[in-house]
């Protein structure tokens, strides 16, 4: 009897080892299968900034497939099942009122050259099309890049820019950032000024996505009030889970749901864990769970912020690790439809809606709101005299 | 009596001459209805900025009725203008400040002009586009950047301006860039700095060849003209310059350069501004024709074009007061025994030839990598600039410590990028 019991016990232990093991394996497999079918559209990656800092945008000096100084390289993107990436053409706030426009054009240039030089990449500007290559899209990070010029905004759109984050960590003359005290620009600006509202309207008219990451809560509310199209947060997480100024509070999440917009949850460990030492996939998944509860899974996407920050959760150290996040969400009971939404369908919905809005609105007249043009008339001669 | 027959002859001639003139004009109109003029340079966008701050929808900015500029839509039609390079000029005062942004704003106004008047203008970017516009009876609209200061010494900016549709760049306006000298250094007003092109200036020209952007040498110094004509792999243009041999103004092209224009298959698009035509503030249509004859003589009929500089100057010859007057000038050329082929060349074919050759060179160079070295920081002036992203071996400078300093500065800054 005792020997049978011992055998039974032994068998139970044996099986209890195997059974969870095969469940885990199939979760991983399920995650991979899911991502093969629905490759990720990631909302924000600062690799272009690294190209500038490390190589002064000299692509001839670097092999983007194998480069191992950065979170991003082409091999890792493929391993992470990334199907489309918004490359940020961020320039520092200290260039505001100086050479921000030139620097932004240089970053746009390096992204285009990068996407033209590698057959794994393909520059795209619309929500249409489905290729096996990794689609390259371009996002501007910070309204200082337009130097308060709607014409410059339009030219960026022509160049393929498809979102603009209204501020980075500095106020512009027309919009307020969530960062306080980092820079001293335009300290009295709150939310959006009248010109800021014109910027948002022009973005609607063009069909450019309005990105509210990095902006203050007043700016978010003002933008949600005026925008006729859904908006995005290209790389932010949940304020309720970690009350960092870069994150989105519940009341705004609810407005976002009404707006049918999307929050592309970000992986920056500092905004996920509010100082807790252990930051892992579970920490990140808590944000996903919370946002799903408040705003529904159709409001969620992914914006890793790789190569833009230093600290990432354990298990998510670089752009090849996205499947681990999907695996964890599967484990938490997210179903495939919800996950396909998070991976790409939710974003595509928003992008199409924004494009449609861009085509419907008749062309309106927007002038550059600076009187400097009139000053020229008084001071300067004809071009060839 | 001999006296009377002389009188009769004179009367007959007096009656016949206007009809000959009329014949030439009719002939000009006939030729131009299938070969309209491609003009190299018009500053209407500058007028739109000055008068309306680029607000095209103001009632007074209506291009169909605007009447205090040289250019409006009815006049373009009357003048048989088939294609126009619109200048997206911004003043030299913007150099090292907001030149890039202001250039984008001028490019935007041209594009909005095309959007607002789609039955008249067709914004295009290549020779086929021009010919398509000819066939559909629209004014093919292209953009020329007027002055290297618009790129703020950045090849990335040059490339993006090309992507936005700019198809020529005048290397300087009336100011030196950090990499090229302008025409004023050939006068007593300024001293040469680069004696043509600096090493970075040569790279700019090479990158323009690679991109397929036409190099324009109006406004540059003679040394710059020669340097470019020596290194450019594609033919070049003078978008709005005339002949120094007739009027020795330094905006004009001297004979030795005209000979280089000939040997490189390049093009001089003659400027109508009185001061460059007669070196005085008065001129007439036949004076402009003299320049065209002169360029034809020294550089060949294939090197002649039209670059009126309308709306960029205030003093224009009698007979050429605005953009409706091109046929009268063509009539004068016909009266001077220009063949129809030569006239068509000057009107359009020469420019199309140059443009196609520029594109051929672009194809030849398609496997060449884009130029990536930035200009050395110390070659730049002005305080409206950050040296963000620069490190040691920028261009021709060697400053090893800068790289380390930069890395140390930027590394902590990365932490703010969330």
TrEMBL record, chain A:
Annotated signal peptide: 1-20
GO biological process: proteolysis
Keywords carried by this UniProt record: Dipeptidase, Disulfide bond, Glycoprotein, GPI-anchor, Hydrolase, Lipoprotein, Membrane, Metal-binding, Metalloprotease, Protease, Signal, Zinc
Entries under InterPro entries matching the protein: Dipep_AS (IPR000180), Metal_Hydrolase (IPR032466), Pept_M19 (IPR008257)
A GO term, aspect molecular function: metallodipeptidase activity
Keyword Protease: yes
Record EC number: 3.4.13.19
Catalytic activity: an L-aminoacyl-L-amino acid + H2O = 2 an L-alpha-amino acid
Cross-referenced PANTHER family: DIPEPTIDASE 2 (PTHR10443:SF9), MICROSOMAL DIPEPTIDASE (PTHR10443)
Protein family according to the UniProt entry: Belongs to the metallo-dependent hydrolases superfamily. Peptidase M19 family.
Name assigned to this protein: Dipeptidase
């Amino acid at each position: 009897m005792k020997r049978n019991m011992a055998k039974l016990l032994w068998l139970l232990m044996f099986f209890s080892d195997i059974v969870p093991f095969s469940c885990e394996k199939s979760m991983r497999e399920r995650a991979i299968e899911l991502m093969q079918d629905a490759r990720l559209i990631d909302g924000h990656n600062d690799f272009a900034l690294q190209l500038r800092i490390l190589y002064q945008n000299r692509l001839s000096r670097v092999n983007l497939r194998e480069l191992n100084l950065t979170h991003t390289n082409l091999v890792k993107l493929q391993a992470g099942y990334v199907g489309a990436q918004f490359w940020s053409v961020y320039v520092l706030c200290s260039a505001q009122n100086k050479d921000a426009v030139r620097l932004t054009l240089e970053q746009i240039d390096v992204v285009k050259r990068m996407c033209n030089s590698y057959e794994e990449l393909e520059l795209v500007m619309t929500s249409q099309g489905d290729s096996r290559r990794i689609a390259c899209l371009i996002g501007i990070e910070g309204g200082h890049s337009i130097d308060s010029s709607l014409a410059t905004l339009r030219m960026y759109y022509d160049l393929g820019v498809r979102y603009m984050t209204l501020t980075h960590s500095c106020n512009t003359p027309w919009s307020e950032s969530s960062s306080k005290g980092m820079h001293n620009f335009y300290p009295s600006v709150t939310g959006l000024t009248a010109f800021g509202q014109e910027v948002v309207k022009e973005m609607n008219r063009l069909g450019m996505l309005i990105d509210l990451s990095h902006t203050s809560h007043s700016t978010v509310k003002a933008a949600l009030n005026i925008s006729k199209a859904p908006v995005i947060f290209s790389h932010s997480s949940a304020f309720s889970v970690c009350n960092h100024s870069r994150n989105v509070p519940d009341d705004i999440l609810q407005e976002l749901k009404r707006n049918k917009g999307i929050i592309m949850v970000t992986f920056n460990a500092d905004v996920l864990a509010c100082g807790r030492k252990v930051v892992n996939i579970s920490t990140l998944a808590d944000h996903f769970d919370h946002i799903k509860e408040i705003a529904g899974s159709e409001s969620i996407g992914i914006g890793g912020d790789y190569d833009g920050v230093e600290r990432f959760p354990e298990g998510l150290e670089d752009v090849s690790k996205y499947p681990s996040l999907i695996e964890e969400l599967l484990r938490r009971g997210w179903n495939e439809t919800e996950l396909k939404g998070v991976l790409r369908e939710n974003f595509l919905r928003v992008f199409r809606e924004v494009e449609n809005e861009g085509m419907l609105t008749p062309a309106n007249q927007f002038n550059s709101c600076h009187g400097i043009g009139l000053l020229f008339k008084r001071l300067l001669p004809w071009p060839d005299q | 009596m001999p006296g009377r027959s002389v009188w009769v002859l004179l009367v007959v001639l007096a009656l016949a001459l206007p009809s000959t003139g009329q014949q030439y004009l009719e002939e000009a109109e006939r030729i131009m209805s299938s070969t309209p003029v491609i003009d190299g340079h018009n500053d209407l966008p500058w007028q739109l900025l000055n008068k309306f701050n680029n607000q095209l929808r103001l009632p007074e900015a209506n291009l169909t009725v605007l009447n205090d500029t040289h250019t409006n839509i009815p006049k373009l039609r009357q003048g048989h203008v088939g294609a126009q390079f619109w200048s997206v000029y911004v003043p030299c005062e913007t150099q090292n400040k907001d030149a890039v942004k202001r250039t984008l704003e001028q490019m935007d106004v041209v594009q909005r002009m095309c959007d607002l008047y789609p039955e008249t203008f067709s914004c295009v970017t290549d020779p086929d586009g021009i010919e398509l516009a000819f066939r559909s009876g629209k004014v093919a609209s292209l953009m020329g950047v007027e002055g290297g200061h618009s790129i703020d010494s950045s090849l990335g900016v040059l490339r993006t301006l090309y992507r936005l549709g700019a198809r020529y760049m005048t290397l300087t306006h009336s100011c030196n860039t950090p990499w090229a000298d302008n025409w004023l250094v050939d006068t007593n007003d300024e001293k040469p700095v680069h004696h043509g092109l600096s090493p970075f200036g040569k790279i700019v020209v090479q990158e323009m060849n690679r991109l397929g952007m036409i190099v324009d040498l109006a406004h540059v110094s003679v040394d710059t003209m020669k340097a470019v004509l020596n290194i450019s792999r594609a033919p070049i243009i003078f978008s709005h310059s005339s002949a120094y041999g007739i009027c020795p103004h330094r905006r004009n092209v001297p004979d030795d350069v005209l000979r280089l224009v000939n040997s490189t298959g390049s093009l001089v698009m003659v400027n109508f501004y009185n001061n460059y035509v007669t070196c005085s503030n008065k001129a007439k249509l036949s004076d402009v024709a003299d320049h065209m004859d002169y360029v034809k003589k020294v550089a060949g009929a294939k090197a002649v074009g039209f670059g009126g500089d309308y709306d960029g100057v205030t003093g224009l010859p009698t007979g050429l007061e605005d953009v409706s007057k091109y046929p009268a000038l063509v009539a004068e050329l016909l009266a001077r025994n220009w063949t129809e082929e030569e006239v068509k060349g000057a009107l359009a074919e020469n420019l199309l030839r140059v443009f196609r050759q520029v594109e051929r060179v672009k194809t030849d160079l398609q496997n060449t990598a884009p130029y990536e070295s930035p200009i050395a920081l110390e070659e730049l002036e002005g305080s409206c600039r950050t040296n963000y992203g620069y490190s040691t071996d920028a261009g021709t400078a060697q400053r090893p410590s800068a790289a380390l300093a930069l890395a140390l500065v930027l590394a902590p800054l990365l932490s703010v990028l969330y």
